[in-house]
Structures are given as C-alpha cells and as structure tokens.
Amino acid sequence: MKSPLVFVIAAMVTCIVAQDPYYVWPDVFNDEERDAFYYGQFPDDFKWSTATSSYQIEGAWDVEDKGESVWDTFAHEGTHVANGDTGDVACDSYNLYATDVQLIKNMGLSYYRFSLSWPRILPNGRPDSASADGLRYYNALINELLDNDINPQVTLYHWDLPQALEDEGGFLSDDFPQWFNDYATYCFEQFGDRVKFWITFNEPWIIAVLGYGDGVFAPGLNGIGDKVYNVSHNLILGHAMAYRTYDSTYRASQEGLIGITLNSDNFYPFNPKVQLDVEGTERIRQFQVGWFAHAIFKNGDYPEVMKTRVAEKSEQQGYFKSRLPEFTEEEKLFIVGTSDFFGLNTYTSSAIIGTRIEAPRPASWETDLNVIPYKDRTWPTSGSSWLRPVPWGIRNLLNWVSEEYGSDTAIYITENGVSTEDVNDLNDESRTKYYMAYINEVLKAYKIDAVNVKGYVAWTLMDNFEWSDGFSERFGLHYVDFTDPDRPRTPKESTKTYSTIIQENGFFPPEPSSGNSGIANTMLVVISLMFAVNFAN
Ligand code: BGC
C-alpha cells in the first residue's frame, strides 16, 4: 500500500510547480509579488503606437525652402555630437516616408507618433513664410498613414526650433508663446481635418535644462539658473495658448485631443527610512514633472516646493527676486486645465539620495534641487549610460502620476524603449525583454491598480539620430544601415514581440506545452511517473 506521505509530497510539489512564476529578468527582478509576469488584456480601445521625431529621421535639412533649425546649426558646429554626426540625411524619411508607413503597418499598429518640423513648415518660424513643400510633405505623410488605417499622433514641437526664431531670443523671448500659437494654429488649420491627437511639446524639461541650462543640446546655451525657468515659463504659456486656440476654434469641428508630453524616471527614495531621501524624492518629482504638470493639471502655478526653494536660494545668491518667474492670477486661470491627457515618456528608474548642501552655489536647476540620483549596479545595462531597465519602475511612476494628478487623468505612455549595447544587433533579445517586462508592468498598473492608462508608444520605429550621441546609440525596432545611401530598414527580432503583444492586446497565458509551463509540464510528468511507480509497488 502506498504511504499517504507520498501523496502529500506529490501534491505539494504539483502545487509549487503550478504556481511557478515567470520572470522576464529572473536573475535581477524576481520578487514574486512585484515582478511575476501577469497575464491579461488592455481595454479594447487601447492605442498601440510607435514614435519618431522630425530631426531624428527626416534628413533633407536644406531641401527646397526649408529653414534651418537649432539642431541643424548645433550639429553643423561639429563639436557637440558624437563622431561629428548630423541629421542632414538621417533615415531619409523625407523621401522614404511611404516605406516607414509599411513598417508600421507590418507591425499591426493603428497609430504613429511623429513630429512636425517647424522650420520645414514655416521656414522663418512665422506663417508669412509658409512653405508649399513643407505642406506637401506632411500632407503626403498623413494621407499615406490614413490610407493604411494608421492614425497620426502629431507632436508640434520635438526640439527643432527655427533658427530664425532662436536668433530673436527663442524660448527666452516674451514673444515665444505667440510664435508657438501662430505655428500651432497654422497646423490645426492645415492638418486638423485628419489629425485627431496633438501633442504640443515633447519633454519641456529637456528643452529647458539640456538646451538652455547645461547646453548639451541645441541651442547649446549655458544658462545659469534663471534662463531655464524663463524658458519653461514661456513654454507653459505657449502650450496653454495653443490648447485654448484648439479648444475655442477647432475642437468642435475637428474633434481631436490635445495635450503635453513630460518625461521622468521613476524616482524613489534610496533609503525609505531616511527623511532626506524621502523629501529629496518628492522634490525631484516636483522639480521635474511638477514644474510643468502642477500648473497645467492642478492650479495654474508652480509647485510650492519649487517656489519656496528657488526663492530661498535666489536670496542667498544675492538676486533681488526669485529666479523662478511668477504667473499672474489671470495667467493661472488661463493655464490650468489645458491638457486633455498626460503624455508620459519614461525609460528607467533612479534611487534618490537627498542632500543638505544649502550654501549658495552657482545657480542651476540641479543646485536648486539638491539630490543625487543613483542607479543600482545590479540593474541590467543598455546601450545608453543613463538607461538601466527597471520594469517595475514604470508601474510605480504611473501610480504616482495617477495619485498626484487625479485618477481620472487619461495617461498615455508616449515613449518607452531601450538602446542595445551592440548597435548592429538584429537579434535584440534585450529589447524584446524590455518591451515584454515594461508593457507587462503597464498592464498591472491598468488591471490591478486601476490607473487610467489609454495607450502605449514604443520608442522608436527605427534606428535614428540620437541627439548628442548621433548614430552611436540605437533604439530602433528596425535596423537602419546608415552607410548605405538607400538607408535600408530591416526588422529586428523585437518587432515580432511587439506585434504579438499588439495582436493579443496584452498577454495571453502561454500554451501548456511551451516556455515556462513546458518546464512545469515536464515536472508533472515526473511526478505522475513517481505515482505510477509507487502504485506498481
Ligand atoms: C526623446 C527622444 C530620444 C529618446 C531616447 C526621449 O527623451 O524624446 O527623442 O531619442 O528619449 O533618448
């Protein structure tokens, strides 16, 4: 007779095997509650997309009457971009846009996020210079997308300001909001019959801090701590003006959505028991995301912590008033509520160490903030030093945005993706893992945490000009051969994974005979054999 103990042990083993959780990065992220893979679907109207931006892909920098952008100027200076690369030709999408549309279609996407080049449309930045060729190009692209059942998601500004406007002060000019509003109005007028999803600005933080603060991006100004705040001030006003114009003049007939896209790591305290780290984490969230979102989504004004901190530091540094400008009461009312959705770009996480350095130092956004962001060395690496995949971070960040700006706020992940260590990697397993794990965490945020996430945009359709890293870093779902004048595109392995996720609108549980459950099945066969042997005895 068989001992009951054998049954109990066998049942326990079966139980353990059946629960065997699947982890995308089993060696790094394997907390059963937090990291175990989750199966389920996104809502039926979830928007799957991929993105690019004009300067990064179009090339044709001086075709016809196109005006120069600040990135044309900056890259041509030769010293700011790795290997002296420029976007002069890039992916040549100006000529190959129809090929791009087929790549998007082949992946099964029904949305495509791209940006308009302001100086291609308005060479001197103003509507009096409107280019027939710019209009022709974007009409052709939009129509090609629609003919292939792909809806355009259009970013009005992804960093390529007309040089002519930069020469008049760019974002630092008080005229900037009006310039932007005139450009946006022209675009609504020309393309709004077909474009139903508008993003005013991509990542204002980068525009202000990297463009006008650190100067590592165009226009390359090394602004002390006041320029960055003046840039953001004019940017927020320009955003609000364009939103109000759309709302009052175009929304009724065009029936689209318009919002802004902000970027953030998932920030969390290095040591949650250390008050400095907890406060530092909240501070960086407010200085990075809140800088723009607080006014737009909450009350028309900057977060309290920014107002007090920049004012205190400014005083210590001998400024006669705070370096952070103030909105008038009228402006506050004008700004609040000017985004139909929260566009979120995120790639990685940072643990935050709060510091006490309060002494006056050269003014900058960084020294106003006083934190040290830290990346754990155990996290997987990528082709970019700033980017280490931390899948659970996107879920945390989504939850924070939802709590901070209201659970009704519609959130779109407008960028998420990763670069590979080998730029020629066609079998890009690390990217496949990244998309699996990150999108799975977005699914958990939607299903388990009830975050109102409406869409996901993979960065990026194809390898392209990665700003100051030129072509030395590759984020593409498709490989582009930049040594070939025809710029051929080749799908990487990750396109298959992304297509499957889109097709399943999430993740179906694995077939019983494959992958992780294959192991489970093998174990079950072994257990059954144990039973059989026992019974035979
Ligand atoms: C930008 C993209 C860029 C990507 C990867 C985002 O911040 O919007 O233009 O290529 O990050 O660095």
TrEMBL record:
GO MF term (any one): hydrolase activity, hydrolyzing O-glycosyl compounds
**UniProt entry keywords in alphabetical sequence:** Glycoprotein, Glycosidase, Hydrolase, Signal
Q: Name the enzyme's class.
A: hydrolase
Query: Would you indicate the residue range of the signal peptide?
Result: 1-18
Active site at: 415
> What InterPro entries does the record point to?
GH, GH_1_N_CS, Glyco_hydro_1, Glyco_hydro_1_AS
Going by the entry's taxonomy, the superkingdom of the source organism is recorded as Eukaryota
PROSITE patterns membership: GLYCOSYL_HYDROL_F1_1, GLYCOSYL_HYDROL_F1_2
- An example Pfam family from this entry, by short name, is Glyco_hydro_1
Cited SUPFAM superfamilies: (Trans)glycosidases (SSF51445)
Instruction: Tell me which Gene Ontology terms the entry assigns under biological process.
Output: carbohydrate metabolic process
Q: What is its EC number?
A: 3.2.1.21
**PANTHER family xref list:** GLYCOSYL HYDROLASE (PTHR10353), LP05116P (PTHR10353:SF36)
Similarity comment text for this entry: Belongs to the glycosyl hydrolase 1 family.
Q: How does it assemble?
A: Homodimer.
Task: Please state what the protein is called.
Answer: beta-glucosidase
Q: Which organism is it from?
A: Stichopus japonicus
Organism classification: Eukaryota, Metazoa, Echinodermata, Eleutherozoa, Echinozoa
